[in-house]
Amino acid sequence: MAKKKFIDVMDTTFRDGFQSVFGGRVLMEDFFPAVEAAKEAGITHFEFGGGARFQSLFFYLNENAFDMMDRFREIVGPEANLQTLARGVNTVMLDTGSSELIDLHAKMFAKHGTTTIRNFDALNDVENLKYSAECIKKHGLKHEVVVTIMDLPPGCSGAHDVAFYEKTLRDILDSGIVFDSVCFKDASGTSSPKKVYDTIKMARKLLPKGTHLRLHTHETAGVSVASYLAALDAGVDGIDMAASPVSGGTSQPDILTMLHATKNMNYDLGGLELEKILKYEEVLQDCLSDYFIPPEATQVSPLIPFSPMPGGALTANTQMMRDNNILDRYPEVIKAMREVVEKGGYGTSVTPVSQFYFQQALNNVMQGPWKAIAPGYGKMVLGYFGKTPVEPDPEVVKIASEKLGLEPTTKTALELANEDPEKSLDFWKKKLEDEGIETTEENIFIAAACGEKGITFLKGEAEVNVRKLSTMEEDCKGEVSMAGTYTVVVDGQKYSVQVAEGDANIQVTEANGETTADSQSAPAAASGSETEIKALLPGNVWKIVANPGQSVNEGDVILILESMKMEIDVVAPRGGVVKSINVATNDKVVEGQTVAILG
Fold first, then answer.
1. What is the pLDDT of residues 11-32, one digit of tens each?
2. How many domains does the chain have?
3. Who is most buried in 21, 298, 471, 488, counting CB within 10 A?
4. Phi, then psi, of 153 in degrees rounded to 5
5. What is the separation of C-alpha 383 from the centre of its chain, rounded to a whole number of angstroms?
C-alpha cells in the first residue's frame, strides 16, 4: 500500500477561529488550558497572532498581545511553528505603515515567538508585498507569500479567475520576492471548488518543484470542505483548520470534520488522531463555555457569494452593530455590498478591504447610496492603498475625490506612508514621551498600530469588553439597571432619552432621524433661525472640534463620531454660530440624536 501524503495542518483556533466567532475577544487566561491540550493532541503548527487579533487585545481585552505571544510560546515549546498574519505594508496596523514601522513589526514579532509570517495584500498589488517580505526575511522569519482569492458576485467579471491568479503569481515570481511557502487565502470562503482545483493545479506547475503550497478558506459559504478536498486532489501541501466551538460557520472547517472527510483517502492530516483531537476539543469547549457565541457565527449563508464578507469581519461587524443597536439593518448592508464590491475595483474581500466594503455599504444603507464616502473605501478607489485589480467606477472615484478632498494618486502606498511625518518612529516616540509612557520598541509599535486606543492601553485606562453568559445573566438578576440611551415616542414624536443613576446629568433631545442628501449630519429647524444638527449614525463622540459661540462655515466639522471603526465628521449644514454642543466626549449617541445647535 502506497504511503499516504503528509498534509501539514495549521490550527487556526486561537487566531482566526477567535476572530471569526468572537471578534477576537477571548482572554488569554481563559484559553491557555486549551493550548496545552492542543499540544498534547500532537498539534505543532498554530496561527497564534497577528491580523485583527493583534489590535483586539488592546481594544477590548486590556491585554498586551506581545505578552500573550510570549506565554503561548512557553506553553507549546521551542519547536512549534507559530504563525501570524500580516497585511503587507499595513502589517497589523490600522493604516499603511512607513518603512520604519514595517521593519519594526517584523523585528518585534520575531522577538516575541513568531516562526512564520503569512504576508498578503488585499488588492494583490505585489508592490505592497516587496518591502514587508524583505523585512520578514531580514529578521530571520519564514515568509509565506499570499495570493488572496474569492469569487466575484454573480454577473461580475474582470478579475478573480485562474488567469488573474496566474498573473499575480507570475508577478510575485518576477519581483524576486523571497518566500518559504505560498498560500492561496480565501477569507470569504466563496471560491468554488472547481476554481480552487484549477488554481492549485496552475500554481503547482508554475512554482519551483518542492514549493510548499497551502489553501486557507472559511465555511461561511458552505463549500470549504469541498474546496479543501479539491485542493488536496490538485496537490496542495497544507490546509488550515480550527477546533470546535470556533470552527465551521464563519470560521475554518473543524479538524474532526476534515479527518472524517479524508477517511480512507491517501492523505495523512498532520499525523492527527481522532480521539486525541476529540479530547482537545472537549477542553476548548470547557474553556469557552462562558462566552456568548453570536448565532450568525455558527451559520452558513447562501447569500455570502453575492456579497463576499469574510468570516473574521462578519462577526466583528455584527458585534459592533449590536453595540450600536442597528443589527436589524444587517441584511440591507450585506445586500448593498454587491454594488460596493463591483464599483470598488474588485479588491479581495479580506482585511482591510472587507472593512472598507462593509463601511461603504453601511453608509449607503444608512445615509443613501453614495451620499457619504467611508474614508478607507474612498482612499482605496483613489489609489492610496495601491492598484486595484480593475479600475474602479469613474463616477465613484469622482464622488470620493469630492467628498474626501483628495486627488487620485499613482504613488505606491509605501511612498505615501514614508512622506507622512505621523508615521515615523520619532513621531510615536515623542507621543509616548508627552504622555509619560516608556519608549520601548514594543510600546512604540503598539501606539503606532493602535492609535489613540493603544495610548489608552499603555496609560492603564483600557477597559475589558467581552461577552460572557455569566455576566449577561448577572445583569438580569435583582434590580435591573436602566442606565443608557433610549429612543421613546411621545404623541408621535421621537425623543432620545438619556437615563442615568443617582444625580448624574441627563438630557432629552428630539430624535426624528431625518436625513439630508449631502452631509454627514441631518439638520432640522429648532426654533426661529436655529438649526439642530443630528447624528445619522449611532456611535461614540470621539472629538469635539467646535465650541459654543464659534462662527462656522457650511461644511465645517463640528464634532467627530467613532462608529463601526469609522471616524464620522458631523458638519455644519450652513454658515452660522454654534449655539450649543449637546454631547460630551465619549458620549454614546443614537441615530437622529441632536448633537449640536447652530444659530
1. 999 999 999 999 899 999 999 9
2. 1
3. 21
4. -55, 150
5. 20
Is the pLDDT at 494 greater than 50, yes or no?
A: no
Quick count: other Cβ atoms within 10 Å of Cβ 158? Answer: 13
CA pair distance 118, 216, nearest whole angstrom? 11
Average pLDDT over residues 320-324: 75
Residues near 182 by Cβ (< 8 Å), separated by ≥ 6?
144, 145, 146, 147, 169, 203, 207, 211, 212, 213, 214
Q: Give the separation between CA 197 and CA 230, rounded to whole angstroms.
A: 5
Distance CA 378, CA 535 (A): 21
Cell numbers at residue 570, please? 458631523
Reported as a single tens digit per residue, the pLDDT across 80-126 is 999 999 999 999 997 899 999 999 999 999 999 999 999 999 999 99
Is residue 49 within 8 A of residue 15, CB to CB? The reply is yes
* Of 396, 308, 279, 290, nearest in space to 344 by CA: 396
Report yes or no: 133 and 179 within 8 Å, Cβ to Cβ: yes
Q: Is residue 408 part of a domain?
A: no
Locate 499 and state its grid cell. 437615563
Q: What is the distance between the alpha carbons of residues 599 and 597, in angstroms, rounded to a whole number?
A: 7
Strand order in the sheet with 566-571: 566-571, 557-563, 539-544, 588-589
CB 225 within 8 A of CB 258: yes
Write out the E strands in 180-248.
181-185, 212-216, 238-241
Domain membership of residue 533 (yes or no) is: yes
CATH number of 579's domain: 2.40.50.100
Query: Which tens digit of pLDDT belongs to each residue from 135-156?
Result: 999 999 999 999 999 999 888 8
Backbone φ, ψ for residue 22 (5° rounding): -110, 10
Read off the pLDDT of each residue in 433-453 and give the average, rounded to a whole number.
96
Give the residue ranges of DSSP H helices in 46-88: 52-56, 65-76
> Quick one: what percent of the chain has pLDDT higher than 90?
68
Listed in sequence order, the residues at least 6 apart from 405 whose beta carbon sits closer than 8 Å to its beta carbon are: none
Calpha distance 576→579 (Å, rounded): 9
Residues 6+ away with beta carbon under 8 Å from 283: 33, 34, 36, 37
CA 295 and chain centroid, separation: 19
CA dist., res. 294 & res. 281, Å (int): 19
Residue 319's SS3 state is helix
Provide the grid cell at 231: 485542493
Residue 566 lies in a domain: yes
Global confidence as pTM: 0.83
Residue 65 counted as domain residue: no
| Mean pLDDT across 212-240 | 97
Where residue 565 falls among pLDDT bands split at 50, 70, 90?
Answer: low
DSSP string, 98-115: PHHHHHHHHHHHHHTT--
Q: Which domain holds residue 523?
A: 484-598
